[in-house]
Amino acid sequence: MATSFYPPQRILMGPGPSDISPRVLAALARPTIGHLDPLFIQLMDEIKALLQYAFQTSNELTLPVSAPGSAGMEACFVNLVSPGDTVVVCSNGVFGGRMKENVERCGATAVMVEDAWGEPVSVDKAAAALAAHPEASVLAFVHAETSTGVASDAAALCALAREHGALSIVDTVTSLGGIEVKVDDWGADAVYSGSQKCLSCVPGISPVTFSPRAVDHIQQRKHKVQSWFLDMQLVMGYWGGAAKRAYHHTAPVNNLYALHESLVMLEEEGLENAFARHLRNHRALVAGLEAMGLSMAVEAPHRLPQLNAVTIPEGVDDAAVRSALLEEFSLEIGAGLGALAGKTWRIGLMGYASNARNVGTCITALEAVLGRQGAPIKLGAGLPAARALLAD
User: Fold this and answer.
1) Which keywords annotate this record (predicted)?
2) pTM for this predicted structure
3) Topology at the third CATH level for domain 271-390
4) Within the chain, what is the greatest distance between any pair of CA atoms?
5) Is 346 annotated as a binding residue?
6) Hey, how many other C-beta atoms are within 10 angstroms of the C-beta on 292?
């Protein structure tokens, strides 16, 4: 006979999900009301305004898709890309490759701009691709590549798209709430994110925002949007600003309570303070890891403070280290993906998990496990180096 499931208390320092505040978890347990209840409609309006703050946009079409970040990605592509279109896709990790999959499933042609994993998207290469393909209607790229811990220049890439008369699709799944995302200042057209990274909400919701230019494009489509569920013209009947909402789907009511609470917490802290906190803890973690003798896999100017890619020392058993961290310290860090599998660890400092306690715990636990494996590290050097920066 099945029994209730009681998970252990983990420290989530992988690529997501991140640790969740007790305030957000408590919000999940509030009484469920109907998704067309007038009080829930009021909450929807608040969520929209809070998302506009997080995205730094006044876009009217800003809402949480009732599905994870991958659905947010698909929502942007299926609404803006039609059969026969040409889309320039920048790929410097796993998620650029997923963009290509979306383009092809829309019946369009993907022109790939490839950069090495661990490097940012080359603005020059993207410019060359757009110049070579003046018919391209969209430029798509990942702002914060989760698979590598690399940030790309979103402002320059969005400006490039506009210069060539193309729309921009931007992945901010790992960046929203952790580093600067300025949708209106960038001139970005379709931007999607996820609830479980720097927003520190439960997984399963994807905030999206579409510019007026993107909305015009959607309204002038000659083909139906390939997905009924993700068709923004239908979804806006439910998430629009009018008092009367048209039924589209049953929204995940309690998950949206949680998203609302996480966004309230972000607003209370303030975006600039949140960014500064992520950067401060990142610098302390890097100082501790480097003092220990480990090295970072990404050059300093392009590192994501919320997702730290660490080079695995020669001879160290990647899986054994991660397993020991989980079993002995209840600490989760992430493995490398694709070309970086077995070569890097991904250590998250996202949202609620970005704090001094987690920095210290991670350094101490890694030192203990690596020391047992006989890795060439300096025992006792990591924690003092991290604490010196946290004390400043």
Assistant:
1) Aminotransferase, Pyridoxal phosphate, Transferase
2) 0.97
3) Aspartate Aminotransferase, domain 1 (3.90.1150)
4) 65
5) yes
6) 22
